[in-house]
Amino acid sequence: MKNKRGVELSLNVIVIAVIVLVVVTVSIMVFTGIIGDSIKKIHNLFGKMEDSDGDEIEDIMDKCPCEPGKPEYGGCQKSVMDMTEDEKKIMMRTDC
């Protein structure tokens, strides 16, 4: 009976160790940019996506897809936090 319990505990420790190893590995890959580079390569396979406003920020990533803006503001002319409600309605529309 004790041997069976010992085997179960050993398996639990191994499973937890594997999970921790995977989490640490993925975290390191994210922080060093390895995963980001892979995503860019996959993205390049599909080619350039639509950019309605011509600001070189693709519509899928552009917070303001109908108005050209700056990359530091996510494709908007100014920070979303600095916009009035009317400006948000105009700039952040998706019906370009």
Quick structural summary:
The chain is mainly α. The protein has helices spanning 2-32, 34-46, 85-91.
Written account of the structure:
The protein is an all-alpha fold and 96 residues long. The protein folds into 2 domains: 1-47; 50-96, no CATH class. Helices cover 53% and strands 0% of the residues. It has helices at 2-32, 34-46, 85-91. The protein is elongated.
Question: Main traits of this protein?
Answer:
single chain; 96 residues; mainly alpha
Structural topology:
Elements: H1 2-32, H2 34-46, H3 85-91
Computed over alpha carbons, the radius of gyration is 23 Å
What is the tally of helical segments? 3
Query: How many separate domains make up the residues?
Result: 2
Helix content: 40-55%
Q: H/E order of the elements?
A: HHH
Question: Kindly, what is the distance between the CA atoms of the first and last residues, rounded to a whole number of angstroms?
Answer: 71 Å
Overall number of strands:
0
- What kind of sheet is the major sheet? none
